[in-house]
């Protein structure tokens, strides 16, 4: 019985190692202008660890862009190499969606897109999708404004919006996504586009539908929202 269990674990271990080695052998694009890590680098284990440790997907790389041009560069490379690409906001997906939901994805970490600016004249805010709900609450509260959103302060804005953004004020104000008035996006082929009710309306409708949308069409730079009701 002990031998049988040992053999079973050995097979599983070899299988996991094979996946890791396969990922390591695949070519990594020569990106420039921002940091990224991949299998074999000392910072890769921490960068690729899932929130739910039951999932052990191994991404091809984890990138940390700082501009929309960087995001476009990554998405275009994924498109040309036929690689799955995903944006990671807070990284709290229980099914490791922030790692692509499978091995060998390009992960775009949005931790450098956390800016929050408020315009008192138009009463709108531009919020980077890497911002956390707690940061948004504090920034808007300083101006006497608020948005509908969830209650977990450390949740990332990008993933929250992608799934609608349910919260304690939803019955009064609706979902967080209902406040969206504009999106800066990078499309699946790397093209940068702006979408609102008046510009690229079909794209805006698809991004503003309150359902998970394809990450290649989602630019983790800024979203515009009405900032009060």
TrEMBL record:
Transmembrane segments: none annotated. Its cofactor is FAD. One of its GO terms (molecular function) is FAD binding. Keywords: FAD, Flavoprotein, Oxidoreductase, Signal. Residues 1-25 form the signal peptide. SUPFAM superfamilies: FAD-binding/transporter-associated domain-like. Residues 55-229 form the FAD-binding PCMH-type domain. Belongs to the oxygen-dependent FAD-linked oxidoreductase family. This is FAD-binding PCMH-type domain-containing protein.
């Amino acid at each position: 019985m002990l031998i049988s269990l040992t053999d079973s674990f050995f097979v599983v271990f070899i299988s996991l190692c094979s996946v890791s080695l396969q990922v390591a052998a695949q070519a990594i694009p020569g990106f420039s202008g921002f940091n990224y890590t991949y299998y074999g680098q000392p910072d890769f284990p921490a960068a690729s660890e899932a929130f739910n440790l039951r999932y052990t997907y191994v991404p091809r790389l984890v990138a940390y862009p700082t501009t929309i041009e960087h995001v476009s560069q990554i998405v275009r490379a994924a498109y040309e190499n036929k690689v799955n690409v995903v944006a990671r906001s807070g990284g709290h997906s229980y099914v490791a969606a922030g790692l692509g939901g499978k091995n060998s994805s390009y992960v775009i970490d949005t931790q450098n897109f956390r800016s929050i600016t408020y315009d008192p004249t138009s009463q709108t805010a531009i919020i980077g999708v890497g911002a956390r709900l707690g940061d948004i609450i504090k920034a808007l509260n300083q101006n006497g404004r608020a948005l509908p959103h969830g209650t977990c302060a450390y949740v990332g804005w990008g993933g929250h919006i992608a799934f609608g953004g349910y919260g304690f004020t939803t019955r009064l104000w609706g979902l967080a996504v209902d406040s969206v008035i504009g999106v800066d996006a990078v499309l699946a082929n790397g093209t940068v586009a702006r979408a609102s009710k008046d510009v690229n309306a079909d794209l805006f409708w698809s991004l503003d539908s309150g359902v998970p949308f394809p990450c290649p069409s989602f630019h983790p730079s800024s979203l515009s929202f009405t900032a009060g009701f």
